[in-house]
């Protein structure tokens, strides 16, 4: 399998608290890859290191064959490494369409700045509308994003990230706070986006059932260390994982 992302021996501590301890894994092109683990295991820290919010003290992150050391989150996003956050990161007063258009800007490389303004705006809007349509958000396109029910706001956030046409999208607990039906809808949209636009997905998620059902491979973290790395079928059988979750799996 061709790797789109490789993380080698990542270490990071916060004032003596070891958040990542020698974490090594790789994500294959087109995979749906999950990172799970108990609270405080280092999952969000790992996403922050991959997306450039933090720099690892040791180890390297290689994306599409390129070492990301020293690259800012914006530079990483431009290379095709997208991200959604725990909690909502949308502009509440802005319309759904404008939120998604902001994300779509990333999908239009700088040369398109040379296009006439109207032409560029038209293309941007057409692509944003396509993404909205895909995620069944078109009926809400003119509503201020903050006025929508929570589940739809989460979907707007995912739409904005997908509109940037990332090669790899990092998702931090995309299903938190969603109803079962909303979770099933989101799962379908993510799987469809992978199929349609060739986006690789790496998600941190607490809903173990959804993770084991949807993911191709899983990395389990506990106290910053990788406990398990492999197919979902092995997660429940692994004694170290069972111990870390104290019977939760
Ligand atoms: N900016 C920071 N400053 C100090 N300590 C931090 C910081 N970020 C994370 N930590 C610590 O690092 C460890 C890992 O935290 P992290 O948020 O990555 O875990 P997590 O697996 O995402 O947890 P959760 O499931 O609760 O979101 C924890 O002990 C946390 O307190």
Automatic annotation (TrEMBL):
CDD domains: ABC_Mj1267_LivG_branched. InterPro entries: AAA+_ATPase, ABC_AA/LPS_Transport, ABC_transporter-like_ATP-bd, P-loop_NTPase. Transmembrane segments: none annotated. One of its GO terms (molecular function) is ATP binding. GO terms for cellular component: plasma membrane. PROSITE patterns: ABC_TRANSPORTER_2. Residues 5-248 form the ABC transporter domain. Pfam families: ABC_tran. Keywords: ATP-binding, Nucleotide-binding, Transport. The keyword Mitochondrion does not apply. This is ABC transporter ATP-binding protein. It comes from Thermus thermamylovorans.
